[in-house]
Design a protein that fits this description.
Keywords: Cytoplasm, Cytoplasmic vesicle, Endoplasmic reticulum, ER-Golgi transport, Membrane, Metal-binding, Protein transport, Transport, Zinc. Its main location: membrane. The chain is α+β, with helices and mostly antiparallel strands. It contains 20 helices and 30 strands. Strands 2, 4, 8, 17, 19, 20, 22 and 23 form an eight-stranded mixed β-sheet that branches. Strands 9, 10, 11, 12, 13, 14, 15 and 16 form an eight-stranded mixed β-sheet that branches. β26 and β27 form a beta hairpin. α3 packs antiparallel against α5 and α12 packs parallel to α14. The longest helix has 19 residues.
């Protein structure tokens, strides 16, 4: 078995579209009928769901859906049984009989509505708006810009902002807040001169205080903006603001304020507050985000808005502070967090937790662009970004392509568009005997408890409904299920072999229209003792990703949790249950193809940045986990087990083993680890390149060989958000570590005498995949 595993591909075999038209992948596609049998399966029964992923085959229906009777409220779908003569449909979830309304009178076997087509398990409803004359609500982009930056970094931010404003639709509403020692809210509607509202950065400030200071509170309106005055509009406005407020002094359509905004950016300078020797700049990130959330609180409910925070260093004063201004105090590390020696951490997390609740209540999103060599507080802000469905990008500088290209992608339309949507809610319906434990991913529980809620909670649980203030085409959630058969389920008779799960996603698309995406899937119940049927329905890629997300959550929530030990025990139990072997004979051990790559995934997961956190800062760990929790299974697999492609004169580009043995002096390797792309030149290739052979006409083939991995890397970079870091290195060079750290150490300094000339060794005491698999075989077959 070790030989079989050692030759597994770099990233696991994947079909052209492994998520299928529904965007749903499950760990088990055949479900055991009892709780006990489910626990014996080791890997949780879970689904990875992409609620609004784009699909060329998606059917859009221009009318409202038909719901089953309360409390079920499931939507009509292809699995409903229909009596065309009696005009009745039977719900597959609760078996209630529902009459079709009069406008369905024309349906028959030959005239079926779109939602009943067998292939339309996912449809999108686009009913006409109640008020056809009212324009759709306009999206709001509120930029929150850190000015405690060096001149060069501030210049990079300003040029990125100008590009972003130029890409925004003319009617999108824009606002600007800058902050350093104090918070400056710019009144863009006052074009005669630069008018700013200043907030002190040292003190926590409530939403009511902010609105009161700006003259936007319900109790009083600032002079010059009196509701009902001549020329002042009455009733709710199309721009999403209440008429009794003058919030549109701060948030203006791009077409009206582009010149003012660009002028402000031209004049914007570094924070003028003096920084004493041995001190950090005074930066009040927490107050700035509070002011942004408070300002957006003046918008009408249902207005989609994003706070786009551009932060270049740690918060050192006021709420959300992560470190003091004194440079002698280091920013917290994982060791400090483990020892509870980070004095500001829990207080800052509590502050951002409250900010998250406010933003979720308002339906607004927090996006974070953190660019600094030091930590900025991503670990503390994680709760606010993740619960609101925000985007996060971590880069070393605002001048780096990771920031510049990722920031630009947010505002692009057409094929490059991320499809940013607002105000999403997800509801889940299940067959009886299935309960929902919770969701890991960018969402918040709406605490809508019911019969479908499980006793065990994973992530955002105790509900059947979740809020997603922000979501996009790549947003992915992991739903954990509990199998809880009732006594009625075990009554004699022929049980229903099918189970059903329905996902209902209400959201506001980028054009401001409300849509409902309905995905209904079916799977089969099987006898849990019948391992053959369970094995046939196992998805090892989804299982690896679900386990990675699950242990990442447990590492955050449980202080003494040993992730490596938990993974090892789980894998041994899984192989012992589903492997084929003779007792106490490791050489007889084999795994079904549906399980064969899982040990390799777990081996790489144990060595990954998700488990081995002490090589990274808490900010980096939080960043990696946020992306792991929101990306598709295919992308998450690459984070766990990078893909490796080899380029040489002897063959076309081919997948290579993720092993140090793949390094050769006459090869170029392209490593995709999701967060970074590495182009690695073997020793001979690097020498030829340095001699300029690629520029000589007789060595044209060498020039093409050098260019091929760069072209492939650009294709990967173009389709990914956030944009990965590109590292170009040579064998034995300092940056070769980016490749070596990801490779299986089959050749180490202990086996250097066996190394082939031109290859490489890894200086580590870590076990190799072969040794790992040998231990696994021995332990799995033990009596």
């Amino acid at each position: 078995m070790a030989e079989d595993l050692a030759v597994g591909g770099g990233g696991g075999a994947a079909a052209p579209d492994p998520d299928g038209p529904d965007g749903v992948r499950m760990t088990w596609n055949s479900w055991p009928r009892s709780k006990v049998e489910a626990s014996k399966c080791v890997v949780p029964v879970a689904a990875s769901v992409a609620p609004i992923r784009s699909s060329p085959s998606l059917v859009v229906l221009p009318y409202s859906p038909l719901h089953c009777k309360p409390p079920c409220a499931a939507v009509l779908n292809p699995f409903a049984r229909v009596d065309f003569a009696a005009k009745i449909w039977i719900c597959p979830f609760c078996f209630s009989r529902n009459h079709f309304p009069p406008h369905y009178a024309g349906i028959s076997e030959a005239n079926v509505p779109g939602e009943l087509y067998p292939q339309c398990t996912t449809v999108e409803y686009a009913p006409p708006p109640l008020d056809a004359a009212a324009p759709p609500p306009l999206p709001v982009f509120l930029f929150v810009l850190d000015t405690c930056l060096i001149e060069e970094e501030l210049g990079f931010v300003k040029s990125a902002m100008r590009r972003a404003v130029g890409l925004l639709p003319d009617q999108a509403l824009v606002g600007l807040i800058t902050f350093g020692t104090q918070v400056h809210l710019h009144e863009l509607g006052f074009a005669d001169m630069s008018k700013i509202y200043v907030f002190r950065g040292t003190k926590e400030i409530t939403k009511e205080q902010i609105l009161d200071q700006l003259g936007l509170s319900a109790s009083g309106v600032r002079h010059g903006a009196v509701a009902g005055a001549p020329g002042y509009p009455k009733g709710p406005q199309a721009n999403g603001f209440h008429p009794s407020t003058s919030v549109n002094r701060f948030l203006l359509p791009t077409s009206d304020c582009e010149y003012t905004l660009n002028s402000l950016l031209d004049e914007l300078q570094m924070d003028q507050w003096p920084v004493e020797a041995g001190n950090r700049p005074l930066r009040c990130t927490g107050v700035a985000l509070s002011v942004a959330a408070g300002l957006l609180g003046a918008c009408n409910a249902g207005t989609g808005a994003r706070i786009i925070a551009l932060v270049g260093g740690p918060c050192t004063i006021g709420p959300g502070m992560i470190v003091s201004k004194d440079l002698s105090e280091p920013v917290r590390s994982h060791k400090d967090l483990d020892k509870d020696a980070a004095p500001h951490f829990h207080k800052a997390v509590k502050f951002y937790d409250n900010l998250a609740k406010q933003l979720v209540n308002q339906g607004h999103v927090l996006d974070l662009f953190a660019s600094a060599l030091d930590q900025v507080g991503v670990a503390e802000m994680k709760v606010a970004v993740e619960r609101t469905g925000g985007l996060v990008v971590l880069a070393e500088s605002f001048g780096h392509s990771v920031f510049k290209d990722s920031f630009k992608q947010i505002f692009e339309d057409g094929e490059q568009s991320l499809g940013l949507s607002f105000n999403g809610t997800l509801e889940i319906n299940c067959s009886k005997d299935i309960k929902i434990q919770g969701i890991i991913g960018p969402c918040t529980s709406l605490e809508k408890k019911g019969a479908l809620c499980a006793d065990t909670v994973v992530g955002q649980g105790n509900t059947t409904s979740w809020k997603m203030c922000g979501l996009d085409r790549s947003t992915c959630l992991t739903v954990f299920f509990d199998i809880s058969p009732s006594e009625r389920s075990n009554q004699p008779g022929i049980p229903n072999p099918q189970l059903y799960v329905q996902f209902l996603t209400n959201y506001q698309n980028p054009e401001g229209q409300m849509r409902l995406r309905v995905t209904t899937i079916t799977r089969t119940w099987v006898d849990g003792s019948n391992t053959e049927e369970l094995v046939e329905g196992f998805d090892q890629e989804t299982a690896a990703v679900v386990l990675a997300r699950y242990i990442s959550l447990k590492m955050e929530m449980e202080e003494e949790f040993d992730a490596t030990r938990w993974l090892d025990r789980s894998l041994i139990r899984l192989c012992s249950r589903f492997g084929n072997y003779r007792k106490d004979d490791p050489s007889s051990f084999t795994l079904h193809p549906n399980f064969s790559i899982l040990p390799q995934f777990i081996f790489n997961l144990r060595r990954s940045q998700f488990v081995q956190v002490f090589n990274n800062s808490p900010d980096e760990t939080a960043y990696f986990r946020m992306l792991l929790n929101r990306e598709s299974v295919s992308n998450s697999v690459v984070m766990i087990q990078p893909s490796l492609i080899s380029y040489s004169f002897n063959s076309p580009p081919t997948p290579a083993l993720l092993d140090v043995a793949s390094i050769s002096a006459d090869r170029i390797l392209l490593l995709d680890s999701y967060f970074s792309i590495v182009i690695f030149h073997g020793m001979t290739i690097a020498q030829w390149r340095n001699m300029g052979y690629q520029n000589q006409p007789e060595h044209q083939a060498f020039g093409l060989l050098l260019q091929a991995p760069h072209d492939d890397a650009q294709m990967i970079i173009r389709d990914r958000f956030p944009v990965p870091r590109l590292v170009i290195c040579d064998q034995h060079g300092s940056q070769a570590r980016f490749l070596l750290a990801k490779l299986n150490p089959s050749a180490t300094y202990n086996s250097a005498q066996e190394v082939v000339p031109g290859s490489d060794v890894i200086f580590t005491d870590d076990v190799s995949l072969r040794v790992f698999c040998e231990h696994l075989q021995r332990l799995a077959v033990q009596s």
